Amino acid sequence: MIMRIAVLGASGRTGSALVDKALERGHEVVALVRTPAKVTVPASRRVEVRKADVTVPQSFPDLTDVDVTVSAIGIGKGDGPGALVAGARVLAAANVRATVWLGALGSGVSSRSGGLIYAGVMRMFVGSELAEKVEADQIALDAGATVFHAPDVTDGPLSPTRHIVPLADLRRPLLPPRISRATLASLLLDEAETGRHGTGIVVPLS
């Protein structure tokens, strides 16, 4: 079934992968970005670019014409604190049928789920942002979203063994887990299409 999918953060690396894969599957895409002039999207009528600055919620575009929203935003350089929480809040208020929110393995309730080494790496490199990630996740969950706690994202091919596991069923790995961006984008879209896991935290795996 062809869907109309809004991608928040469509100009980022994961967001761009989401746009490309959604188009490959025949969907219509609404690219939500802060700076439309910087967006490079395929020359296709199925992509509509809308200016969407989560820090200015009063001017955030209407999304009642889309079937599902997938968020690929993170905390970028120069964003300062609050951008991620602001993104969760605007999507929670957007009145979209379904939302898939991208969070991080090793934050909040999954703080030890990636293993002890992974937990240490998260504290070292993400430490100051962990509290904001937890708050944003909770806002998304309260609004009924499926929240992906993705492990470290790398470049690489699409995994043929990709799958999604509810956080409660995740077996703690010995080594820090990783997932390719192509695999993550595909699994985010799988959930957007099926809504199989509903409200809750899930982990995408290769």
Automatic annotation (TrEMBL):
Source organism of the structure: Streptomyces nigrescens
Superkingdom, taxonomy of origin: Bacteria
Protein name listed in UniProt: Flavin reductase
Pfam families in alphabetical order: NAD_binding_10
Annotated SUPFAM superfamilies: NAD(P)-binding Rossmann-fold domains
InterPro entries (UniProt xref): NAD(P)-bd_dom, NAD(P)-bd_dom_sf, Polyketide_Oxido-like
Residues in NAD(P)-binding domain copies: 9-190
